[in-house]
Amino acid sequence: QMPSSNDGQIVNPLIEQRADPWVYLHTDGYYYFTASVPEYDRIEIRRAMTIQELAAAVPVVVWEKHPEGIMSKHIWAPEIHHIDGKWYIYFAAGREDEAFAIRIYVLENEAENPLEQSWVEKGEVKTRWDSFALDATSFEHQGVRYLVWAQHDPDILGNTNLYIAAMSDPWTIIQPQVMISTPEFEWERRRFLVNEGAAVLKRNGRIYITYSASATNHYYAMGLLTAADDSNLLDPASWSKSPDPVFATNETTGQYGPGHNSFTVSPDGDDILIYHARNYRDIAGDPLYDPNRHTRAQRLYWNPDGTPNFGIPVPDGVHPVRISTETGFIRHDGDSIVIDANVSDIADSQFQIVPGLADSDAISLESINRPGSFLRHRDGGIWLDENDGSDEFANEATWIEHPGLADSTAVSFEAYSLADQYIKQHGNLLILESISTNADRANATFGEEF
Ligand SMILES: *[C@@H]1O[C@H](CO)[C@@H](O)[C@H](O)[C@H]1NC(C)=O
Ligand SMILES: *[C@@H]1O[C@H](CO)[C@@H](O)[C@H](O)[C@H]1NC(C)=O
Ligand SMILES: *[C@@H]1O[C@H](CO)[C@@H](O)[C@H](O)[C@H]1NC(C)=O
pLDDT tens digits for the chain (450 residues)? Predict the structure, then answer.
């Protein structure tokens, strides 16, 4: 009835000191992970059967920078793809003698397991200009392979724009390349005029491209481009840009400069957003050499109209859950808790399961966008109240989570301080009551998903 999923067994940050993270779920059932390492000197790959297990998987160095010449400096943002039966890595690199002569390069591997056998250099992806170019990603649509990347146009003031072109093979684009986004809004032009780090997601009859904008400190934020999946993707007019960032620094959850994302799916088929962020704002020195952009993972949600809802970067720790009934998700509305069929501010419905305030063998449910406030019973109702530090509060905000009274794959919440009293749905509100009938058991049973 109301599925509980343990996809939520993600603990953030997922992988420390890995920026520009890329996760790819292959047909062999493995999640493959690669990212920029703080030394910018090598490409490593690791794999695991779940996203969380990537954290402990041993990375294998599959390629190292050259001592000089091309590909000898600033090895950035590798992505691993499987195209027509072979593995490819796209990455960006500079030169020891010209650190910011960044260009896009491709590696190929014919092995079934990309952690084995050596990678063959296929050379630079030649674009329209011999200029700063990086962050290539590739996707297939209606039989055509495309490359999307960031590049400096010598005739445009600013740093990088986003381009798309069709490909004749995985390392060759077909001209013309067309520009689909340039930094135009204030949030794309903070310190640097940057659009970069594109990632593609095909859903709901549309092609979505996320990208990252501005300097790589706390200004860094993600934007969204959208095209209909039956439009000409090489026509800039097919692409529309969201005027506001879809994902940005959130001081409440302590996440700064989220971006350079990729997309994958959980074992249950839910969309997962992979990105990096720091958990502090102020950086000493050049952000490029601050190593603490950590890889993070969280659920990507969908609005009723089929557009993605990125929510906010969730706090460090276990991934928050959302608690559902047949008629919607519970969310806070001021101090009240209501059941809402259409939660537009996702964070209002996200709670982190933490050790119980009164007993660490039990649980408490802390709001992610009102940290320090917990689901609590008082006067027979359920509220979101701020922890006042009292024993009374701790007792009333501590719950024993049981298998669902009406469905053991779901959950029920018994009050820690009032045995046999459970959280129950009552219309679009929640109450605390004892259980006697099957209807009570049904109304005290909730879905818990992440
Ligand atoms: C953090 O996210 C919440 C959404 O629940 C929002 O109200 C708040 O303005 C955000 N804070 C920042 C600094 O963006
Ligand atoms: C969901 O809520 C949003 C924001 O309040 C609103 O714009 C939208 O029309 C609602 N959609 C549905 C299906 O109720
Ligand atoms: C159980 O939930 C249903 C659906 O919200 C509601 O109509 C009914 O009044 C609830 N029953 C009790 C005893 O709260």
Answer: 344 445 558 999 999 999 999 999 999 999 999 999 999 999 999 999 999 999 999 999 999 999 999 999 999 999 999 999 999 999 999 999 999 999 999 999 999 999 998 899 999 999 999 999 999 999 999 999 999 999 999 999 999 999 999 999 999 999 999 999 999 999 999 999 999 999 999 999 999 999 999 999 999 999 999 999 999 999 999 999 999 999 999 999 999 999 999 999 998 899 999 999 999 999 988 999 999 999 999 999 999 999 999 999 999 999 999 999 999 999 999 999 999 999 999 999 999 999 999 999 999 999 999 999 999 999 999 999 999 999 999 999 999 999 999 999 999 999 999 999 999 999 999 999 999 999 999 999 999 998
State if residue 312 touches ligand 1 by the CB under 6 angstroms criterion: yes
Identified catalytic residue from 196, 396, 407, 414: 196
Q: Which candidate in 20, 348, 396, 414 is catalytic? A: 20
The residue whose CA has the least distance to atom 8 of ligand 1 is 250
Q: Any bridge partners for residue 355, and if so which?
A: 363
Q: Which residues contact 269 (CB under 8 A, 6 or more apart)?
A: none
**Is 20 an active-site residue?**
yes
Active site includes 196? yes
Ligand 2 pocket member 344 (CB < 6 A): yes
Q: Report whether residue 347 contacts ligand 1, using a CB cutoff of 6 Å.
A: yes
Of 155, 176, 171, residue with least CA distance to 163: 176
